[in-house]
Specification:
The chain has 104 residues and is mainly alpha-helical. It is built from five helices and no strands.
Length: 104
Amino acid sequence: MPTPESPMFLSRKPTVPPTFDGVDYEDTARLKAAQDAIIREQWVKNMMARLVREELSKCYYREGVNHLEKCGALRERYFKALKEGKVHGYLFEQQNYIPKEGGS
């Protein structure tokens, strides 16, 4: 397994932002790179929600009957992460792309 600093890891890391801004749809390599970056970003948010859920579970177990008072901040953070942490793919953003005003 490559380490985070290895050349193999850096070569697989996306070099484009997770958006379709400025992507030429005729350039297959850049289009696939943008799609990959969007999926990776969604998975990162999903994994962050999982980590918060695990911390919330530990807090509930540790605090017992006082979990409503002691774990409130984690609970709110988890609810926020649930809304944002869904992996829904890139097709909707790709097919319904509206270019930003003033960009071109």
